[in-house]
């Protein structure tokens, strides 16, 4: 994956790639971090200067300490033993920014109370209690995060055992690494207030625990030929009224997923033009203790089309099996048929309906006059169909249950059957030439 931000990236072992580096969060990276520190106990009353949290505070006289800091009464990964209960650590971690991101994500586990500053701006204050794996969205302008030196300053007070402190900072990085194939220029931005994290499984949303928030990946692509876009997704949530995942095209919802656990493949054939694409992980209400997230991976854009040539009716299935071994081959996803389609028994249409992973179908050079009832019904991935100029009718339920996004109706079509487009995603219907249409079921 291309690294736009090589610093500030939290390294999550088993989740984050080995190349990640920067302000590690130890609970996930299992790597130590270093900070300047000042230490005092409730009994000796020692404390640093009152402006200890300021960006320009001189901490050169402070000693170094390795974190996370905790003790044996916790199950957390730690490097330095917390000295005694009823004591306080003041910590300062410097980080260098080469290129400023729009937003960052602070991750922290603490016990007991803590206050956190970034460049002197308070960003988190949590009384006298502990909390685990807290995520805080950080706006770079509010915290004056700029190129060069920056500082996270933390005051952590430990009461009775256990005591612990661990914190890190993540910068939203370019997400283009999840693109595994592309025939067009593409850059996937990860600059929402709640950025996604790069994991071994893909880009993972990290607005978990934050109500009324969205993590957004976005891109704008221009395609010159019909291009098949596919991606894999995993969505884990609490309920459809609490959290969800949606994929939008030009801000129009194309895919919506919600519930406890879902995974699948999103697909659409983009016609020539410019398209704004967004992957959105949204949380409306948060249920404490419930992990909710979305993972996006294996984004592919391809204009490769396999042409099946038929000499007589009834050959579509045979030609497809010759090219792909079987009709339900996942690689059989975008085809063009040249020649006759049909037969009295409708063998060709039956075979087309058995092409489970068919996503794009170019029939512009196919030979048939009538599209029968149920012709392409319930092809759940099919989003793109081009009809021949001479087709005169479209049967009942012809496209029902497909993912058809838009379609051109040839001028020769005189009738469209009952619920021909029921359950599709059609947003645009273009009637070509001087339409002869006189009947719609």
What keywords describe this structure?
Jelly Rolls, 31 strands, mainly beta, 3 helices, elongated, 3 domains, Leucine-rich repeat, LRR (right-handed beta-alpha superhelix), about 450 residues
Descriptive report:
The strands form 8 sheets. The chain has a 6-stranded antiparallel sheet, with no helix packed on it. Strands 12, 13, 14, 16, 19 and 21 form a 6-stranded mixed sheet that branches. It has a 4-stranded antiparallel sheet with strand order 15-20-17-18, with no helix packed on it. Helix 2 (316-324) links the parallel strand 22 and strand 23 (334-340). The chain has helices spanning 26-29, 316-324, 347-353, and strands at 33-41, 63-67, 69-70, 80-81, 87-97, 103-111, 114-118, 121-125, 131-139, 148-158, 164-171, 179-182, 196-199, 202-205, 213-223, 227-236, 243-249, 252-258, 261-270, 273-283, 293-302, 306-309, 334-340, 360-367, 370-371, 384-386, 393-394, 406-409, 415-416, 428-431, 439-440. It has 3 helices and 31 strands.
Secondary-structure map with pairings?
Layout: H1 26-29, E1 33-41, E2 63-67, E3 69-70, E4 80-81, E5 87-97, E6 103-111, E7 114-118, E8 121-125, E9 131-139, E10 148-158, E11 164-171, E12 179-182, E13 196-199, E14 202-205, E15 213-223, E16 227-236, E17 243-249, E18 252-258, E19 261-270, E20 273-283, E21 293-302, E22 306-309, H2 316-324, E23 334-340, H3 347-353, E24 360-367, E25 370-371, E26 384-386, E27 393-394, E28 406-409, E29 415-416, E30 428-431, E31 439-440
Parallel strand pairs: 3-4, 12-21, 22-23, 23-24, 24-26, 25-27, 27-29, 28-30, 29-31
Antiparallel strand pairs: 1-2, 1-5, 5-10, 6-9, 6-11, 7-8, 7-10, 13-14, 14-21, 15-20, 16-19, 16-21, 17-18, 17-20
């Amino acid at each position: 994956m291309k690294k736009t931000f090589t610093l500030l990236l939290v390294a999550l072992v088993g989740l984050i790639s080995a190349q990640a580096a920067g302000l590690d969060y130890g609970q996930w990276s299992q790597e130590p971090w270093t900070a300047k520190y000042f230490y005092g106990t409730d009994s000796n009353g020692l404390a640093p200067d009152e402006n200890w949290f300021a960006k320009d505070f001189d901490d050169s006289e402070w000693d170094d300490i390795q974190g996370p800091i905790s003790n044996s009464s916790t199950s957390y990964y730690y490097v330095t033993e917390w000295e005694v209960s009823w004591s306080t650590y003041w910590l300062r971690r410097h980080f260098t920014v080469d290129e400023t991101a729009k937003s960052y994500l602070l991750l922290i586990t603490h016990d007991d109370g803590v206050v956190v500053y970034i460049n002197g701006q308070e960003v988190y204050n949590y009384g006298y209690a502990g909390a685990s794996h807290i995520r805080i969205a950080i706006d770079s302008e509010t915290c004056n995060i700029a190129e060069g030196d920056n500082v996270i300053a933390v005051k952590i007070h430990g009461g009775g055992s256990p005591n612990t402190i661990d914190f890190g900072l993540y910068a939203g990085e370019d997400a283009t690494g999840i693109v595994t194939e592309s025939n067009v220029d593409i850059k996937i931005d990860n600059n929402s207030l709640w950025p996604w994290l790069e994991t071994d499984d893909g880009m993972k949303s990290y607005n978990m625990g934050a109500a009324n928030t969205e993590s957004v990946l976005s891109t704008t692509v221009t395609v010159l030929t019909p291009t098949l876009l596919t991606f894999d997704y995993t969505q884990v949530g609490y309920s459809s009224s609490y959290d969800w995942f949606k994929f939008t095209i030009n801000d129009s919802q194309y895919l919506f997923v919600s519930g406890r656990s879902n995974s699948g493949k999103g697909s659409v054939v983009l016609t020539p033009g410019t398209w704004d694409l967004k992957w959105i992980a949204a949380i409306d209400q948060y249920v404490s203790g419930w992990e909710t997230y979305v993972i996006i991976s294996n984004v592919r854009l391809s204009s490769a089309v396999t042409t099946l040539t038929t000499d007589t009716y009834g050959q579509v299935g045979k030609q497809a099996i010759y090219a792909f071994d079987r009709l339900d081959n996942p690689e059989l996803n975008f085809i063009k048929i040249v020649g006759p389609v049909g037969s009295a028994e409708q063998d060709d249409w039956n075979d087309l309906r058995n092409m489970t992973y068919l996503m794009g179908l170019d029939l512009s050079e196919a030979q048939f006059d009538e599209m029968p009832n149920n012709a392409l019904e319930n092809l759940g991935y099919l989003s793109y169909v081009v009809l021949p100029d001479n087709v005169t009718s479209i049967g009942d339920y012809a496209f029902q249950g497909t993912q058809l996004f838009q379609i051109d109706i040839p001028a020769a079509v005189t009738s469209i059957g009952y619920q021909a487009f029921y359950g599709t995603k059609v947003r645009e219907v273009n009637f070509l030439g001087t339409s002869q249409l006189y009947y719609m079921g």
